[in-house]
Design brief:
This protein is an alpha+beta fold and 100 residues long. It has 3 helices and 4 strands. Strand 2 and strand 3 form a beta hairpin.
Length: 100
């Protein structure tokens, strides 16, 4: 299980609307919002790919200006990454590359 915290930015006048959309979306849990347009959410997934996909969907929601990763926790992926490094892999994972 993976858990990540995201900082979602929106215009202050759209903050309530975006927060409600996020709460109803099933993509995340909303933990904090301020009048300045900052919303803190957590997303969960079985792996990092699921979390990244959720982040991308949140980024495309109406009135969302930006989404930033604040914290990520993974039960299994750290050891998998260490193993790849031990075996000489230094490539950027496909899921982190820009797609057009």
């Amino acid at each position: 299980m993976n858990v990540s915290s995201l900082v979602v930015k929106t215009a202050p006048e759209r903050m309530e609307e975006v927060a409600e959309t996020l709460k109803r979306s099933g993509l995340c849990d909303v933990f904090f919002q301020d009048p300045g347009g900052t919303i803190i959410v957590t997303v969960e997934g079985n792996n990092g790919d699921e979390e990244i996909e959720r982040m991308k969907v949140i980024q495309q929601l109406p009135y969302v200006l930006s989404v930033g990763l604040a914290y990520a926790y993974s039960e299994d992926e750290l050891e998998e990454a260490r193993e790849r490094i031990r075996h000489g892999s230094t490539a950027v994972p496909e899921r982190l590359k820009e797609r057009e």
